[in-house]
Structures are given as C-alpha cells and as structure tokens.
Amino acid sequence: MLTFYGLPDTQAWTAAGGPVDAFQKLYPWATVNYLGLQSGDETNKMLAELKANAVQSDVSQNNNAPSLTNFAAGMYVPFCNPYEASAGYPASVLAGITTNSSATCVFHPAFGNYAAIAWNTNAFPSGINFTKWSDITNPQFKGVLAADKPTRLSTFGGILNLIGENMTGSQWVSFMNQFKANQPILTASAGTVFTDLSSGQATVGISTTDDLVKGVGPGVPVAYKWVNPIPVLTSYFAISKGAPHPNTAKLFIYFITSMAGQTAIGNTGRLPMLPAAASATVLKSIQVPVPSNYNLVPNPDQKLLNNQTAILNLYTSIFGS
Amino acid sequence: METKIPAALGIAFAAVFIAPLLILFSQTLSVQVVVKALTAPDLLPIISTTIWPSLIGGGIAVVSAVLYAWAIHRTDVPGKKVLSLLPLLGLTQPSEIRAIGLTFLFSPRIGLINQIFDNLFHVRFPLFNVFSPWGLVLAHSIGAFPFSYLVVAAVIRGMDSSLEESARVTGSGIFQTFRSVTVPLLRPALVTTFLITLPISMANFDYPFIFGAASSGGSTNTLATAIFDSISEVSPPDYNGAAALSLLYIVITFIGVTIYILSTRRRYRYEVTAGGRNPQTVYSLQGYRWVVFVLAIGLIGFEFFLPQFILTFVSLLPAFSFNSQTLALISLKNYDALLFKLPFFWRALENSLLLGITVGLVTAFLGSILAYVVVKSRFTGAKAFDYFNTMPYAIPGVVYGLAILWAFLAVPVVAKYLYGTPYLLFIALVITWVPFSVRITAPALLQISNESEEAAQVAGAKWVRIYRTILAPLLRVAILTSFTYVFLDVFRELGIVALLSTPNSYTLTTFIADLFTASAGQYPVIAATATIMTLVAAAFLVFASEVLHVDLLRSDRRT
Q: Are A273 and A234 in contact (CB under 8 A)?
C-alpha cells in the first residue's frame, strides 16, 4: 500500500494512464491511496500528523516553495536515487533546491510548469503588446491583469524575483509598487488565473502549462504566447518522515522518476521534468510550440530559495498577505 | 424530573466540543501573539467588512422573510402551497456555488446583468459590483433568507390571530394591523432569527473568498479570509495569527448570544405565541392578490432561480463567455464529462449522501437529547448551552477543522485507530452540527408538558425508557426536521471536510474545490456539478416532505 498526498487534481492523477494507474499496473500488489490537497492543507495536515507521530502519507508532492517549508519542518527523509543523476534531467532541475547540503537526496523531480502570458481573445482579438515580463506594469493592463499572489512564492512570486535579478534593490521595490498601482487581480492560484481569463474576469494573465494545455480549446476565448526567459515552476516528490510504508515509497520514487513514470505524468497534461518524456507527451501537442532559443529558468531560483523569508516579507509589505 | 443522563451527555458533549478549541488556543496563543494580531494595521477594515455587511444582509433577510411569510400564510395570495415551499430551494445551494452564480450575474466586467445594462444604456459603470462589501450584503441577504423564512413562517403559522382581529374590528387597516400588532408579536422570533443568522454570515468564508479571488483591491477581505490566508496561503502557516483572529469571532458571538438571551428570555425563546389551534384570519388582498403574487415570485426568482439559471446556462457552455456564438456552443459535453468520464464525481456524490444521512440521523437524535438538557433540566450549566449552541457555526470551518485535526491527533487511541478513516470525519461533523439540531428540536420539546414524564417516573421508568417510549415519538417531526436540515448542511459543508478528508471520504464540496483551484477553466464543469447537487438536494427535500412527512415550516409541532 502507498498513501500519496498530491495535487488537488485527483481525476487526472488517478485516471487510466496516469501515474497512480501506471504504478498499480506495474505493481498490482501495491494499492495507492491518492489524496488531493491544496498546498496549504497538505502542509497543515502533514505537520499535524508528524507532531502526533501519526504520519499517513508515504510520499507527497508539492511545489518548490512549500516544499522548502515542509523540509524545514522536518517532514521529509532523504533517499538517494542513483537513476536520477543519469536519466537526463537538466542540471538546473537536479540542482533545484538541493544545493543545501542537508537537502541532498530529499527532493525528486516531479513535473514543471512553464509560465506564459495569456489573454482573453474577446477583449484582445488581435493579441497583446507584451514582449518582456516587465510589461506587467503597462498601464494598458490596469485592473485587468491577473496573477497568483506573490506571497505564495509560486508562479508569479518567482517571476517577480526573476524580473528583479537585473535591478537594484530599490529599483525592484519601485517596480513592484508600480505594478501594485496597476491594480492587478491577485488570485489564490495560477489555476484561478486561467479561470478568470476564460470567463473574462481578467483579460490578461500569467498562466502556466498546467492550465493552458488542458484549457485552451474550441469555444474557450484564451490565447497565449511565450516570453523569454520562460520561468519553469518546479515540483518535487519527497518521502515522508515516518512513512508507514517506506519501501513502497522508495519503489514509487524509482518509478515516478523513470521514463515510464514521467510519461504517466505527461498523460495528466502536466509537463514532465524529464525532457524526453516532455517531448513525447505535452510538448508534442502543445498549441503554441516553445521556441528552442528561449531560456528556461528554474522558478524559484537560488536567490529566492536562499532569501525566502526576506523576499516573502517584502512581498507581504507591498501586496499584503 | 431525573435529568442525570441527559445532563451527563450534555457535559460530555460540551467538553468534546470545547476541547479542540482549547488545544488549539493553548498551543498558539500568548499575550504577545494576541497583541500583535489585534494591532495589525489592516485589522479594523477587515473587522468592519466582517460585521456591517452581515448586519445589513441579515436585516434584509429577516425583513424579507417576514413580509414574504406573512403574505403567503396570512393573505389570500394565489399559489400559496407552491409559494410556501419555494424558499426551501435556497437551502439546496452551497454558499460557494451561490457566490459563483452571483459572480456570473454581477461581476463588474462579465456579469450578465451588468452586460445587459451596459448594452441597453451604454454606461461605463456596472449596475452593481458584486466584488464589494455591498456584494457581501447581497450574498448574505440571499443566503440567510431561506432559514429566516422557515423560522418566521413557523411562528406566523402558529400565531393566535385574536389580537389582530381585535385591531381590525376597531377599524385598523391590514397594513396598520401588520405594523402595530403582528410585528411586535413577532419581535422575539425576529430577534432570535437575526441573532442566529448573524454569526453564520460573519463566519462565512465562501462569499468573500470567491468575490475576492476574482477582483483586485481586496475590498471583500473579512476575518474568515484573513484566517484562511494565515493557515493555508502563507508558508509557513501562521497558526498563532489565525488563532488570535478566531478569538474575535468568539468575542463577537459571545456578545451576540448574550444579547439574544437577555432580549428573549427562556419563555420567548422557543414559544409559539398561542397554541395555533384556532383558525387564523386570512386577509383578502382583493385586487392586489396578483400583485403580491408577482412580487413573491420575483423575490424567489432573484434569491434562487436567477443564480441557478445562470449556473445551469454556463454548465451548457465550454466557457463562461457571451458573444454572438454563445448559443451555437450549447451542448451537454460538461454533463457527459461529469457523469461518464470523471469517476470521482460518483464517489463524491455517494460519500456526500452517505455522510449527510448518517450524520443527519445521529445528530438529530443526539440533538434531541441535548435539547432536553437545555429546556427541561434545572442543571445550572444549561444556560451555558446557548453559547455552545452558537459556537460551531460562529467559528469559520477552516479554524474548527484545524482545531479538530490537532485534537484528534493529540489522543493516541484516536490517532492510531481512527485518524485517516472516514469515521473521524463523521465524528467531526456530528460534533459541529449537534448544536444546530438542539436549536431546532428545543421548541418542540418546550411544548411537551411534564405530566407524561412524571407519570412514567412514578411508574418506575428510567430516563432512557421515557425518552424511547414517550419523548422520541412525540418529537418525531422535530427529529425528522433536524435530520433534514443537517443533511442539507453536511451536503454543502467544506471547511471541516477539507482537512479531515481521506481518499475514501471524497465529497462533492471537495470535488468542486478541486475543480476551482487546480484545473483550468473549470467553471462550466463546476456549474454542472452545482446543478446536479441542487437537483439531488431538491429531490431529498421532496422525499422529506412527501415520504417522511416533514413539515419544515412547523418544526415545533409534535406528532
């Protein structure tokens, strides 16, 4: 048996061809209990379980920033998977959040999420003038541009950090205040951004491949384009401290980081971190191909990871909690 | 009378209910934490947005309920039977779904009503912006109307109309009689209703969350969303801040309940004014019958049918987008996906029904026993039950869910054998909704005289036998009414469920929450799910009315 705390997209993860189904087909004796949880609920639940010595999950998946919080709380154990180093994962993915020596072998690549600029085609039938990420302060987008809350240190939190890479501290603060003055729609998640775009609540938004790949289609008035560099929001798996079935958990990590497991992730519409699996699944059928000369930048990057608290406090002071 | 057993149960229940909060507060609160939370610069606007929309919305709901109930039950308006049942449809809609429906109608940019207004008059401002505190007023007034109507209608139907007849005989007109006689007689019930719905509105998370998620500016931030942010949106979670803000809810609820106790006293609290056995006066509206009928239909149309219509319409589209191609895109694809391609929908529906039925049944019986403590016993702690009875729905579900999670995990036996099972969710929901059941059952219990029990005691019967053979049969209608209410509330519950759910206890509300935050552009599928939820809940209401013979308009009536 394996209990897996993952994304609140239970349908996709447990559907035929998805990771749970593929793992159970390979190992019929292993029943997988999948529980989809919001990021915050997962942290709360796992923290409470760990404290009470009643851990339920064997493996969990979370985005990069919450994973760090969970790691700092002692929720994970390391497991060195020798396959990962030679499988063909980009160095930046493996380096990810493992440069901290105590985090070595803790995080295992799950999937990535490319960020793009999207717009509602009813509002902008001819497209939008948006060529660099700093265009988010364009007064043309006042009150209509949606992004997930920076304080979540997720998609948009990382993009802001990326923009600040080439600025001094005061320039960066000034830029963020300018963006705030543009009255952005700050949503609870990147998924909500797409929902708002498709409904017209927002007419421009920062959306991700998770939503663009599955959501854009006939009758849905959303289009998108890539902006160089492309922020890649990374997600990882980890084995829980006190996991009731640690050996099955390790077996799952072997599987999910293999080509078979990454392909199964691609079947959910999410972008596998293994490039070969990504090319064979999501990138093969994506509506707008990713330009080969565009840079893929891990999000969050090392600066954000090393200064998480300070950056979070800065975002909170400007955008509120 | 012997009340040791119910009193012991009452104390046990109070302890079980309070314990999670005590554990949460003991691990999070300190003077510094409370001072820091209460001196936060944005706290006052958040408190203001929490309180005044709830006050005004609740007031509008109660006033509307009184006028509607009086028109239906005391005049010769046509279609009385249908009109008397239509408000119950509002009970079938979860508040998160209602919020989405109001967004589709009154979003300043894409709301259908605002788009129509703009097309007609070509103005640059919306007719109504639901992403504002006034949007919360609208949502609370609509959300509180069904329950307010039920309470007020029960009282109006039970009123002795002799005082009104006396006024009429002396020459007072219909409306003057209503204003000077009927309303003062209803005052205790109106105060009760208002003070029950007020904490529910203030603790509501769905309206400010849904409205705030789609707007810029944060003008709908309330204590509930601030607490949610502290627990679930900030990394690491700020449990201290969340607990400190929860204290505010407890203080506000304490003040509200105290006002309620002082203003209504025990003899007014549940009493139906007179026995309701004499035929009531029905006023003739003459030429205004159909005018009142249209107004009544209009009120229900606005309160329930309009949001439901837009939800159902969106469920037939690939996305919420109105243009010249919209009608050509109508199809049943979302229902096809929901019913045949998303297996979790059926599991969620099954779990929601199972939870609703089991929690409803247990809560109904437990509530009737605890109501006995409140109404019949001279147990000195009985008055404190009025506070316990209000707490569960006065505290945001996300806080109480966290408190229960910590409390359950703190008990080794529970952590080892019950945690991770659906039974824990069941227990949590029972604890949360029993006080509500007490409030529903107590009025009926008040009307049972003590003679039967005393006679049984003299004959040697113990309390358990008295309850089983005398009280429970007499309370059948009230117990079934309580079961119906709790079923509908559990069916719509999300806050407690989110943290305690397991892979095997996936419910419809968590299914919708999944769709809302995780998957792209899922509004149409959410709308399809909401439409089916409403149909199922409405079918249950019909079942309760026709098969169980539950008269939701008269829970105080005995069999």
A: yes
DSSP-derived pairing of the beta strands A2-6 and A59-63: parallel
Query: Taking CA atoms, what residue in B is nearest to A40?
Result: B232
Q: Which of B110, B233, B235 sits opposite A201 (nearest CB)?
A: B110
Q: Does B320 contact A199 at a Cβ distance shorter than 8 Å?
A: yes
Greatest Cα pair distance in chain A: 58
The model's confidence at residue B276, banded by pLDDT at 50, 70 and 90, is very low
Q: How far apart are CA B107 and CA B126, in angstroms?
A: 8
B420 pLDDT more than 60: yes
Give the angle subtended at the CA of A97 by the CAs of A310 and A193, to the nearest 5°.
70
Between CA A181 and CA B457 the distance in angstroms is: 74
The one-letter amino acid at B310: I
Distance of alpha carbon B88 from alpha carbon B541, whole angstroms:
8
Beta carbons of A38 and B232 less than 8 angstroms apart: yes
Output the 3-class SS for A21-67: HHHHHHCCCCCEEEEECCHHHHHHHHHHHHHCCCCCCCEEEEEHHHH
Which of B522, B508, B235 shows the shortest CA–CA distance to A62? B235
- Rounded mean pLDDT of chain A? 87
**Mean residue pLDDT across chain B:** 81
SS3 B498: helix
Cα separation values, B459 from B452, B463, B499, Å: 11, 12, 50
Q: Global pTM?
A: 0.84
For the segment B168-190, what is each residue's pLDDT rounded down to a tens digit?
A: 778 777 778 788 887 887 887 78
Task: State how far the alpha carbon of A295 is from the alpha carbons of A94, A279, A291, B254, in Å.
Answer: 17, 16, 9, 58
- Taking Cα atoms as reference points, which of B524, B438, B135 lies closest to residue A219? B524
Residue of A184, A217, A221 with shortest CB distance to B216: A184
Question: What's the CA gap between B242 and B219, in Å, rounded?
Answer: 20
Kindly tell me the burial class for residue B468, based on how many C-beta atoms sit within 10 Å of its own C-beta (0-12, 13-18, 19 or more): exposed
Q: Sign (positive/negative) of CA torsion A118, A120, A124, A126?
A: positive
Indicate the length of chain B as a whole number. Answer: 559
DSSP state of B317: S
B23 vs A247 pLDDT, higher one:
A247
Q: Is A254 touching B (CB cutoff 8 A)?
A: no
Question: Measured between CB atoms, does B327 come within 8 Å of chain A?
Answer: no
In chain A, residues with a C-beta closer than 8 Å to the C-beta of B237 are: 40, 43-44, 47
Looking at residue A40, what is its pLDDT?
A: 80
DSSP output for A202-237: -SEEEEEHHHHHHH-STT--EEEE--SSEEEEEEEE
CA distance A40 to B233: 6
Between CA B384 and CA B370 the distance in angstroms is 12
B556 pLDDT exceeds 60?
A: no
Query: CA–CA distance from B80 to each of B147, B282, B290, B540 (Å)?
Result: 18, 12, 12, 21
Q: How many residues does chain A have?
A: 321
Helix (H, G, I), strand (E, B) or coil at B149: helix
DSSP label of B283 = B
Contact A122 B323 (CB under 8 A): yes
- Closest by Cβ to A211, choosing from B409, B419, B520: B520
Chain-centroid distance of CA A246 in Å reads 25
Pair B219, B132: CB distance under 8 Å = yes
- In this structure, the strands spanning A204-208 and A230-240 are unpaired
Residue A259 tokens read as 């080509």
| CA distances for A22 relative to A28, A81, A281, B349, B541, angstroms | 10, 20, 15, 26, 42
